[in-house]
Amino acid sequence: LDSPSSCIEHTDSGFITVIPCGTSPGLECLDWKTFQWTDMETGDVGSHVTILIGETLSRLTCGYFQATVHRVLYKSRDPRYSIPFQLRGRLDSVIDSEGLGSNKIKV
């Protein structure tokens, strides 16, 4: 890595994550076609949001939608603030995905 990582590469466990543009750049997503990291925060703060697919949605769609591999790197000396919204199921819920071609999934 060229910069120290503030959040190593990972996928989120829920359905989706909505991330407004942070106060300074840093969010990167892995492009599965090129295996290159793409900077997701090139605009002004508040100019856009990034929507990430989580592991639960990936499993529900039998991999049709793949969980988004992403990371956050320090790219500025300024503090970075980001407030993601994560849509997740209840820990004790069971999702019946039989109609989608897979078995029941415990969230």
Strand content: 25-35%
Count of individual beta strands = 9
Please state the average pLDDT score. Answer: 83
> How far is it from the N-terminal to the C-terminal residue, by CA?
33 Å
- pLDDT below 50 for ≥5 consecutive residues: which ranges? none
What characterizes the major β-sheet? 4 strands, antiparallel
Question: What structural class do helix, strand and pairing data support?
Answer: mainly beta
Order of strands across the biggest sheet? 1-6-3-4
Total helical elements: 1
The best one-word shape is globular
Radius of gyration: 16 Å
Write the layout of secondary structure elements.
Blueprint (H helix, E strand, L loop, with lengths): L4 E6 L5 E5 L6 E5 L4 E4 L9 E5 L1 H6 L9 E4 L11 E3 L6 E2 L9 E2 L1
Describe this structure in words.
The radius of gyration is 16 Å and the shape is globular. By secondary structure, the protein is mainly beta. It has one helix at residues 55-60, and strands at 5-10, 16-20, 27-31, 36-39, 49-53, 70-73, 85-87, 94-95, 105-106. The model has no long low-confidence stretch (mean pLDDT 83). The chain is built from 1 helix and 9 strands. Helix content is 6%, strand content 34%. The protein has a 4-stranded antiparallel sheet with strand order 1-6-3-4, with no helix packed on it.
